[in-house]
UniProtKB/TrEMBL annotation:
The gene is folD. Keywords: Amino-acid biosynthesis, Histidine biosynthesis, Hydrolase, Methionine biosynthesis, Multifunctional enzyme, NADP, One-carbon metabolism, Oxidoreductase, Purine biosynthesis. This is Bifunctional protein FolD. It catalyses: (6R)-5,10-methylene-5,6,7,8-tetrahydrofolate + NADP(+) = (6R)-5,10-methenyltetrahydrofolate + NADPH; (6R)-5,10-methenyltetrahydrofolate + H2O = (6R)-10-formyltetrahydrofolate + H(+). GO terms for cellular component: cytosol. The lineage of its organism: Bacteria, Pseudomonadati, Pseudomonadota, Alphaproteobacteria, Futianiales. Residues 7-122 form the Tetrahydrofolate dehydrogenase/cyclohydrolase catalytic domain.
């Protein structure tokens, strides 16, 4: 059997960002509408700093209005909520994202539920989760949306496929399952308590790994020819004081069995920010009662 096709998330994300840029130019031209995204970072987590910097840079590159709020690690929950409420009321801001994780003194759930659902470009608010679960128009979490785009690009119509999502987080696993149900997949959500996890995974035509455990999914967990989407971004020791990124799937092992597979880095990760830009344009359109461009 030949080796798996490597799904190039970086290239797909570049294409999506280019389409976002064209959509923004069209909105500015036709409606004088410049979508605006505010990103809030609390503290100095090194990875979060990189993600927030990249979000702001790519927002500007797409021609959108970008605002960054960097708050100290000892910021109180009340101060963060006050900032979120001010952004809710700001007409130049169509999307609000509070970077996770947050410091221990701040309840992430309280912050998320304070964001205006219409501006919740992360799609984490219960209103958006409920809309997605009931098959209605929602803002959809960026990482699962990116996974869906890659799966569709690889497999075409997903209808009738056996999909297994490993992981049940509110941010990835649950919305991923809802999106795949909407595509008419037969969906299983597996997790740490699932009995005989390898056997459950082996049922999948489409396997989504989102557990946060480096290299957990092995070749013998994969049905030959299956499409494997790896959401894991785990930083592991690479020796000599260095680290490297690895996914939840043992890539070298799995690519001999899978039909197609996302690498880490360069797979799902870049799609997260591209989908955030896409969601900001969609949110801006809906706030102005405009139909979002179909290219997104
Ligand atoms: N409010 C949110 N917080 C967090 C989210 C989120 O969607 N909303 N997701 C993650 C972090 N994240 C975006 O915020 C993110 C993670 C990874 C990447 C990415 O491009 N990864 C690259 C590798 C980058 C590297 O070298 O470190 C890749 O996989 O190729 C983008 C965004 C948690 N917080």
């Amino acid at each position: 059997m030949s080796e798996a096709r490597i799904i190039d998330g970086k290239a797909f994300a570049e294409g999506l960002r280019a389409r976002v840029g064209e959509a923004v130019a069209g909105l500015v031209r036709a409606h004088g509408l410049t979508p605006g995204l505010a990103v809030v970072l609390v503290g100095e987590d090194p990875a979060s700093q990189v993600y927030v910097r990249n979000k702001a840079k790519q927002t500007r590159e797409a021609g959108m209005h970008s605002v960054e709020h960097r708050l100290s690690a000892d910021t109180s929950e009340a101060d963060l909520l006050a900032l979120v409420r001010a952004l809710n009321a700001d007409p130049a801001i169509h999307g609000i994202l509070v970077q996770l994780p947050l410091p221990a003194q701040i309840r992430a759930e309280t912050v998320i539920q304070t964001i205006d659902p219409a501006k919740d470009v992360d799609g984490f608010h219960v209103v958006n989760a409920g809309l997605l679960a009931t098959g209605q128009e929602a803002l959809v979490p960026c990482t699962p949306l990116g996974c869906l785009m890659l799966a569709r690009d690889t497999l075409g119509d997903l209808s009738g496929l056996e999909a297994v999502v490993v992981g049940r987080s509110n941010i990835v696993g649950k919305p991923m399952a809802q999106l795949l149900l909407k595509e008419s997949c037969t969906v299983t959500v597996a997790h740490s308590r699932t009995r005989d996890l390898p056997a459950v995974c082996r049922r999948a035509d489409l396997l989504i790994a989102a557990v946060g455990r480096p290299n957990m999914v092995k070749a013998d967990w994969i049905k030959p020819g299956a499409t494997v989407i790896d959401v894991g971004i785990n930083r592991v020791d690479a020796g000599e004081g260095k680290t490297r990124l690895t996914g939840d799937v043992d890539f070298e092992d799995a690519k001999a069995v899978a039909g197609a597979i996302t690498p880490v880095p360069g797979g799902v990760g870049p799609m997260t920010i591209a989908c955030l830009l896409r969601n900001t344009v969609v949110a801006a359109c809906r706030q102005r009662r405009l139909t979002p461009p179909e290219t997104l």
